[in-house]
Design brief:
The chain is an alpha/beta fold. The chain is about 45% helix and about 15% strand. It is built from 27 helices and 16 strands. α7 crosses α10, α11 runs antiparallel to α12 and α23 runs antiparallel to α24. The chain is globular and about 90 Å long.
Length: about 600
Amino acid sequence: MSNNQFLRLSTGYNGYPELREDNRYYVDKTEFIKTVINYDCKVLLLTRPRRFGKSVFMSTLNAFLKIDSNKPGDTSFQNKIFKDTKIFQDKEFCNKYMGQSPVIFVSLKDVNGDNFEAAYERFASTVYKLAIKYNYLLNSNKLDEFDKEELSKLLNKSYLEQLKNQNSLKDSLSTLASALYKEYEKYPILIIDEYDVPLARASFHDSINSVLYKDKKDFVADYHKRMVTLMSDFLGILKDEDTLSKTIITGCLKVAKNDIFTGVNNFKVNTVISEKEDLTGCIGFTKEETYKFLKDYRMDNCAEKVKEYYDGYKFYDKEMFCPWDVVNFIEDNYEKNLNGTLDLSNIQSYWSGSTSSPAIYDYLGFLTDNDNQKMQDLVDGKTISFKLNDSMNYDCLSMHNSNDFWSLLLHTGYLTKDWEETAKLNKENTEDDIVVRIPNLGILKCFTDNIKSRFKNKIVPSSVAEALANNLFEGKAEIASDTIYNLLQNYISIRDNATKAPHENYYHGYLNGLFSNCSKKFFSEYHSNYESGDGYADIVFRNERDEVVIIEIKVCTISESKKAKAREALAQIEDKNYAKPYLENEDISSINAYGISFRNKECEVLCKKIK
């Protein structure tokens, strides 16, 4: 077989019809059309990691089901693009469903903006592009003037983009569904791809804006809250059981705690940890599909390496590969493999270059020592356990709970469930209820690269950290202040502390990370959030000379005095008697208390010698 006999590959293609019409390689998932349509629910949410083929699958559903608006009942288009597929063999199902339903198919992946107003315009543009597909209904003799007037509003982009007209956007799905029902006398099927993207991006921008504009009295970080309200109204159609025949939705997170799916009846969710065999293989490549793909491109010799780098996900009963990695690997390397020039010792992780997870970065300054150890265990190829939050949403992320962090990594594809170890753990009746691991070498590289890139050029040399600690032991507040200030200028970005959680937590985490660069035996004891006296001191450490440093951290706004805040921190150390355990210890040679205040990349350090 010559090179030009291979089917072209499909990187960058999200549409099933385009794949088939362009004669591109397609991994046949059509059998799951029947599974989804016959699934015992009115609303089905499928959550899978990014780049796992959600959009292609949803496009496949749309192409199979949608009615021909020019010739209702004509299935010649479907006969062409579904010929030789698995679903085409089921003639009874095809006769009943193929090309027989009005379909509303919308993707929300492009709804983004630095603020709600900007995102709303993108949302309006998305709805406008959707409505254009149904402008033929304006000529229908089955719709009355009111129906056509409401549809015309959706076809007026400038009208739709104005916030004062947002009711039209909120009601857009209901408007289209009602018009389609009147035209075809059939309840339409609704397909929504990447439904949670607007929420994810709103949450991220809220955290950034809360820092950039926190000193403006009239600023309120309500982007995410407003987007939740908009999405809840937009999806309000799901609560009306007499409007749609079926709804299929995809996303990365379940998002069940806010108002979006409240009141939706007969609603089922299938996630990466669902214990249902009927849908585990519908999104993503199974082992059999991947190995056939390699064989079709004469790359059987690469199977072991592909397994090491792109396999490892386990969706209940099935071993799964990331499609984005597999397709890109084959496209980049099949000719090299044929020519004998492929170097399998240097395989690329394509997923890392396509995945942006800003919410994950926000956590890194908040992880506990236990979390840091878990992260190291994962990198070392071990498993970790945690309490899964399977119903987390983007509101949860701002709280920076450790379990939510690991849950987020699981749902977004950095981790996969270890089913056997989880079963063992559950038998022991421990508080942790799930065991996970990094699925493969490609994700391991992505995992470490993303964390390293987050702190690129921010690793403070141990000599600097130890010099700072020694200055604190010696009561040299001015020198310590200069050192911390320089570190802030060189190693901190204003976005690093962009979070809705208390900002003291970020600087606290940063100082902990800083002092962790000291040599292993530099401190004889080190404590964070240390129960001492009548409260909890932020940071306490001691050296072999029995010198003790107690640190309390405060954050101030632009209108507050850094020095006054540092004095407030010192007063707290005294008022809460943080030094009491050390004052009672005759071995302690000195105790220096420090109040440190931060404002963005500035700081103030004040010292009081207690002993």
